[in-house]
Amino acid sequence: MKKNKNKFFKIVLFAIIVIAIVAVIGFLGFKQMKISQTEGEYRSFLKVYESQVVNLEKDTSLAYYNAINSGRDEDFAKSTKLNLDLNNIYLNRDTFYKLKAFKDSGYIQDPLLKRQLDMQYLKFMTSLADKKTVDELTSMQNDLEQKFYTFRTKYNGKSISDNEVEGILKTSKNSKQLKAVWEDNKKIGNVVSSDIIKMVKMRNSVARDLGFADYQKMALTLNDQDPVEMDHIFDELDVATKDAYTQAKGEIDTALAKQYGIKVSDLRPWHYQNRYFQEVPPGIFSVDLDSLYKNGDVLALTEIYYKNLGLPIDTLVKASDLYERANKYQHAITFDIDREGDIRVVANIVNNNYWMHTLLHEFGHALYAQKADRQLPWELRVPANIFTTEAIAVLFQDMVYSPQWMKEDLKMSDKEVAAISPDALEYNRLNALIFSRWTQVMYRFEKSMYENPDQDLNKLWWDLVEKYQLVQRPEGRNAPDWATKIHIVETPIYYHNYMLGYLYASQLRHYINTNIVNTNDGHPSYSGNQKVGDYLVKEVFAPGARYSWEDLIEKSTGEKLNPIYFGQEVVKQ
User: Fold this and answer.
1) Kind of pairing between the strands at 158-160 and 153-155
2) What are phi and psi of 480, to 5 degrees?
3) How confident is the model at residue 542 (pLDDT cuts 50, 70, 90)?
4) In 3D, which of 455, 485, 550, 498 has the Cα closest to residue 214?
5) Tens digit of pLDDT for each residue in 125-163?
6) What band does 28 get if pLDDT is binned at 50, 70 and 90?
7) Angle, nearest 10°, between helix axes 2-70 and 73-90?
8) Between the CA atoms of 21, 26, 27 and 30, what dihedral angle is there, to the nearest 10 degrees?
9) Confidence band (pLDDT; 50, 70, 90) for 330?
């Protein structure tokens, strides 16, 4: 009897196991069927989406490119109209809810599909905002940008370009002249400040529609960046650079005061040889880096450098608009017009050190766009994040301070290099250190402005400048100097990406030096080393946005983003 009972239990147990296996197989089969079905539906969605957006994105980019190069009302009007048409696609709530359903289902498993879905979900989240407000913001931003692009400083009764403003600030030793040019350049602030405040409040309204406390937190989140983590990074960066910067700033002040024949306590913003003290004053060094390019051709040098890396840019140069003229955008920017290879750089070339490193910077952006794998889906033919392309731009712009650059690209003798390179390397170190403190001002100003746009923004600006840059505000000045920085209008909540770019650039340089070129030289230019070009194309450019920025950094350098390498470069050991 007992034997029969045991046999019965074994049969029951076996039956249960069989039923469980069948159930699991059935569940897995059902799940696989749902995955296949849902991914098929999402692929169909992508086809419709791309049929609506690809050509319109191209037309919108081209219209904006034309507008900033001409400054004409009709070109800006066309750019505004196309931006509004694009808004109509991205502000479609039905599309957002479709994407949300795909995302919530958990059935999108293919890595490339999942990555596209994650990116589109963040992009379409703005559809939860009031469309009228978003459209009004688009029009207002275009109007303000046009005012910036066509504004010219007045000096001695004539209009002068930003290049000329920077030239006076760098070379004049007359404090009255410096102050006059600096103050007139800041007059754009009075033209645009009230509209900027209105725009900030409208941006906050959009953010609240999406469930965010303010626009700054929304912008970071939609750029796949955690606001709390960004605060932490900038707090750590402040601590890491504060002492080194304070020492360097003291030395710079002493040198500048001597040049101008004034006391250190009399130094004011116009004495720091650029409009925002966001880079090292070149006059504190005995070497004149501008003289290296005065009789040269910075564009030709840029072309030769990249060609020797195995990354020729001749087609990019031919497509670009590189020299200054009236009413043209006065800075530098790179456009990926269509994600198919139509990439254009806008610049205002002068043969000096600034434009040498700016061209290397911008064509670094251009190469990143050009070398994205064209087999990737259209949505993924962009950098992993805004700051990863900034990292490449920073990596290349720093080449101009390398002794190897001077010897191999500028064809200087060993004796000439030995005389110049110590100052050049210190120039580069101080540039990065000074820029890190300037980004503290920008990051914290925009954060605080969006938290409370009704506060005294004029005072906030100078409080932050004095705290992080140690630059004394002009006595009695109560003007919207914060509103003179075009990024606040054109690319809000962007400046921290430049700093993250510096961090990743330092990490890339460390990896390349250790694993690709096997050098102890902390400042190689990689001139002629095609292995470096091959590495960057394979590990950084070609993947596009296939991976999240965290994964891209880890895959390309073997570790997560690590600020230690930037610290090693800018803080004297």
Assistant:
1) antiparallel
2) -80, 65
3) very high
4) 455
5) 999 999 899 899 989 998 998 999 889 999 888 999 888
6) low
7) 170
8) 160
9) confident
Residue 2 has pLDDT above 60, yes or no: no
Nearest CA to 421 out of 396, 400, 393 is that of 400
Give the model confidence (pLDDT) of 81-118 as tens digits: 999 999 899 999 999 999 999 999 999 999 999 999 99
Q: 64 and 41 in contact (C-beta within 8 Å)?
A: no
What is residue 321's DSSP assignment?
A: B
Confidence (pLDDT) at 205: 95
Choose among 283, 500, 559, 533: nearest CA to 399.
533
Pick the closest to residue 359 from 404, 275, 432, 293 (CA basis). 293
HEC sequence for 207-246: HHHCCCCCHHHHHHHHCCCCHHHHHHHHHHHHHHHHHHHH
Domain boundaries, the chain: 2-128, 143-570
Radius of gyration of the chain (CA): 27
Helix (H) or strand (E) holding 105: helix 93-105
Angle at 464 between CA 488 and CA 203, to 5 degrees: 30
**CATH number of the domain at 143-570, please?**
1.10.1370.30
Neighbours of 95 (CB within 10 A): 19
Length reported for the chain: 573
Q: Residue 198 half-sphere exposure, CB side, CA atoms within 13 Å?
A: 13
Start-to-end CA distance of the chain, whole Å, equals 86
The reported pTM is 0.89
Q: Are 240 and 160 in contact (CB under 8 A)?
A: no
DSSP state of 472: P
